[in-house]
Amino acid sequence: MPVETDPDHHLVLVTGPSGAGRTTAIRVLEDMGYEGIDNIPLSLVPRLIDGAPLVRPVALGLDVRNRDFNATALIELIDSLTRDPRVLLEVLYLDCSPGVLIRRFSETRRRHPLAPAETPAEGVEREIDLLAPIRVRADHLIDTTELTQHDLKAEVAARFDTGTAGRLSVSVQSFSYKRGVPRGVDMIFDCRFLANPHWLAELRNLDGRAPEVDAFVSADPRFAEFFQKLQDLLLFLLPAHVAEGKAHLAIGFGCTGGQHRSVMVAERVGSALAQAGWPVS
Q1: Could you tell me which residues come within 8 angstroms of residue 6 by beta carbon, excluding any fewer than 6 positions away?
Q2: Which of 21-35, 61-75, 251-265 has the highest mean pLDDT?
Q3: How far is 12 from 54, CA to CA, in rounded Å?
Q4: What does the alpha-carbon distance between residue 233 and residue 226 come to, in Å, rounded to a whole number?
Q5: Domain positions in the chain
Q6: DSSP letter string over 165-229?
């Protein structure tokens, strides 16, 4: 939104019905350099801008679980912050169809915050009605009904990336081939050729984050060359994806159980890319 002077504070209010992806959106913003504050009481938000200018933009998660939440108070807060010349305010509303929200609550067996003793459907209906006035005030509306988690990450990154890493966010994950290849992954690397810690009793119950597992896998004679070529390939490809306008890239590493080798390689790759300046989750 246009402002007449450079603002001291950049705030992104993240809201929407429970289960629509608000937590995921805040985590993506944090990965991009925003300071995330979830479920802050509405009455405390003005205090954020009364002090010195914020060093980095802030993502504020606001929903019906907030202690003093009500739609009228949130609209008044949005209006007051919009009028404040010190503030650049953006409202991100995560929307979703009622049927999908009900299904998500049913799958997780969580109680809806507005219907703790009733069915999720009743809570979803109440919350959508409650948030309707806020939805129309949103600067950014993302409907997550048909989006995977990776799709949502890409949408948020495309809209809010501060430009510090070429407008490309990277997610790195490990998976088990026994459970199938995950959806939404752009690149997959098979780590099953590396020495398997599973066959050592002292390593079997650990995972790839343990120093003992890292040392065992990295001792495989093939590992050093594999990792160097992998790192070179990714550092070559990421700028190419930026040039093509891609906002998000998901990289998967798989092994048999998804516990040792793939986790170890994912941790190493995530650290290497972060050190090279890429925002990695």
Answers
A1: none
A2: 251-265
A3: 13
A4: 10
A5: 9-160, 169-275
A6: TTT-EEEEEEEEGGG-PPTT-SEEEE-TTS--GGGSHHHHTS-TTSHHHHHHHHTSTTHHHHHHH
Number of neighbours of residue 77 by Cβ within 10 angstroms: 18
Tens digits of residue pLDDT in 216-228: 999 999 999 999 9
Q: Which two tokens stand for residue 223?
A: 């590992």
Task: Decide if pLDDT at 66 tops 70.
Answer: no
Q: Do 197 and 217 contact (CB within 8 A), yes or no? A: yes
CA–CA distance, 4 with 214 (Å, rounded to integer): 53
pLDDT digits (tens, 9 = 90+) for 150-175: 788 878 877 776 554 445 778 898 99
Identify the CATH homologous superfamily for domain 9-160.
P-loop containing nucleotide triphosphate hydrolases (3.40.50.300)
**pTM of the shown model:** 0.56
pLDDT at 277: 82
The one-character DSSP state at 280 is B
Tokens representing 275 are 């050190």
Instruction: Report the residue count for the chain.
Output: 281
Question: In degrees rounded to 5, what are phi and psi of residue 34?
Answer: -75, 150
Average pLDDT, the chain: 85
Query: Where is average pLDDT lowest: 59-73, 103-117, 201-215?
Result: 103-117
Structural Rg of the chain based on CA atoms: 22
Q: Would you say residue 114 has pLDDT above 80?
A: no
Distances in Å between the alpha carbon of 75 and those of 88, 163, 274? Answer: 16, 30, 38
Q: 3-state DSSP call for residue 249?
A: strand
Please tell me the number of Cα atoms within 13 Å of 112 on its side-chain side: 24
Contacts 24+ apart (CB under 8 A), 68-73: 68/41, 68/42, 68/43, 69/42, 71/130, 71/131, 71/133, 71/134, 73/42
Closest of 25, 31, 84 to residue 60, by C-alpha: 25
